[in-house]
Design goal:
Keywords: ATP-binding, Cytoplasm, Nucleotide-binding, Nucleotidyltransferase, Transferase, tRNA processing
CATH superfamily: DHBP synthase
Largest sheet: 5 strands, mixed
CATH topology: DHBP synthase
Shape: globular
Pfam families: Sua5_yciO_yrdC (PF01300)
GO molecular function: ATP binding; double-stranded RNA binding; L-threonylcarbamoyladenylate synthase; tRNA binding
Strand order of the largest sheet: 4-5-6-3-7
Distance between the termini: 13 Å
Number of domains: 1
CATH class: Alpha Beta
Number of strands: 8
Family: Belongs to the SUA5 family.
Number of helices: 7
Enzyme class: transferase
Structural class: alpha+beta
Order of helices and strands: HEEHEHEHEHEHEEH
Length: 149
């Protein structure tokens, strides 16, 4: 995971396992990386990417957690629950092209968490071309997803 972290740190795009499907991601603060990820996935920029975090504590730096969101996070994270909350980090809001909301979650996968331990937060979306089937086989990632690092 150290090499994946270095790739993210240098502005690259990485594919990694999550608790649901394979994910593809980048540094959410790097506008060029985010733009490249939109191109790789052939995704409309009107569909913002979610952000994965190592912990609720890390995600509290970028999103506003009210009492209900805190209870949900404490009960279901790490896990496959994504919450849509008010964004509070202006830099991430700008780099991701967000409105007032941000989708966040803490995945329940040792590999993803190992990467997130270093990155703290990461754009984390399904490793597929938009509107195509999500990938669960790492070999498919190499053949169906172009231009990742």
């Amino acid at each position: 995971m150290q090499s994946a972290y270095q790739t993210v740190k240098q502005g690259g795009i990485v594919i990694f396992p999550t608790d649901t499907v394979y994910g593809i991601g980048c540094d959410p603060y790097n506008k060029n990386s985010v733009s490249l990820l939109y191109k790789i996935k052939k995704r409309e920029k009107t569909k913002p990417f979610p952000v994965l975090g190592y912990s609720k504590k890390e995600l509290e730096k970028i999103a506003e957690f009210n009492s209900l969101a805190t209870k949900i996070a404490e009960k279901f994270w790490p896990g496959p629950i994504t919450m849509i909350l008010n964004v509070k980090d202006a830099d991430i809001q700008k780099s991701l092209g967000l409105g007032k909301k941000i989708a966040v979650r803490v995945p329940d996968n040792i590999c993803a968490l190992s990467l997130l331990k270093e990155c703290k937060v990461l754009v984390g979306t399904s490793a597929n071309i938009s509107d195509e089937t999500s990938l669960i086989d790492p070999n498919e990632c190499e053949t169906k997803i172009p231009n990742y690092d």
